[in-house]
Amino acid sequence: MARMLRVAAVQYAVGEDVAENLATALRMIDAAASEGAQVVVLPEFANHVSWYSGREHARTQAQHLDGEFVTALGRRAAEHGIHVMANCTLHRPDGRVAGSNILFGPDGAVLAVSDKQVLMGSERDHVDPAVERTGVVETAIGRVGLYSCMDGVIYETPRMHAVEGAELLLNSLNSFALDEASLHVPVRAVENKVWVVAANKVGPLVPEHSIAAVAEKVGVPVDRLHGAGESQVVAPDGTVVAVGPRSGEAVVVADIDLDLAGDKTRPDGTDIIAARRPELYGPIAEEPRGRTAPAGAEKVAAVVLTPGPGDDLGALLDEAVARGVDLVVLPELAAHPDADPQRDPDPALAPEAIAARLVGTSVRVVTSVVDAAGAHVGLVLGAGGVELVQPQLHASARHAGLAEPDGDGIEVLEVPWGRLAVVVGDDALYPETFRLAALGDADVVAVPFTVAEKHDVDLLLLERAAENRLNLAVASRPHPEHGGGALIPLSGDFTLWGDWEGEFAGVISCPEPVLADGAITEATLRPACATNRFVSRGTDVVDGRPWQLAAVLTA
Question: Which terminus of the chain is more solvent-facing, meaning fewer CB atoms within 10 Å of its CB: N or C?
Answer without folding.
Answer: N
